[in-house]
TrEMBL record:
Keyword tags: Endoplasmic reticulum, Membrane, Transmembrane, Transmembrane helix
Self-association and partners: Component of the dolichol-phosphate mannose (DPM) synthase complex.
Membrane topology: Multi-pass membrane protein
Protein task: Stabilizer subunit of the dolichol-phosphate mannose (DPM) synthase complex; tethers catalytic subunit to the ER.
Pfam family for this entry, one: DPM3
Family stated for the protein in its record: Belongs to the DPM3 family.
Protein name, UniProt field: Dolichol-phosphate mannosyltransferase subunit 3
The UniProt record lists the keyword Endoplasmic reticulum: yes
Ranges annotated as spanning the membrane: 34-55
Keyword Transmembrane set for record: yes
Length: 89
């Protein structure tokens, strides 16, 4: 929920800034229609950056990997006992 409020407040601030620029005529009217496009592209780049950083910092869990392999072996054994072909070992 906190992220939703951050995003909504950021969009509100950017919208207010954009309306302010339109009212003050600081930027020529021919360029103001590009501002939302720049905003969308910037947010997309930010999102890709955050995904990349998250992937680079993703923790590895060797203990959990071992437990997962044990669970898989147990499930294969259970299914073999029931007569289900689970493929090669």
């Amino acid at each position: 929920m906190k992220h939703i409020f951050k995003i909504i407040s950021l969009l509100a601030a950017i919208s207010a800034f954009w309306v302010g620029l339109l009212q003050a005529s600081i930027i020529p009217r021919t360029h103001t229609w590009l501002l939302p496009i720049y905003l969308v592209v910037s947010l997309g780049c930010y999102g890709l950056l955050m995904v990349g950083v998250g992937l680079m910092q993703f923790p590895t869990c060797p203990q959990e990997a071992v437990l997962l392999q044990q669970d898989i072996a147990e499930a294969k054994g259970f299914l073999k006992d029931k007569g289900v072909d689970v493929g090669s070992d």
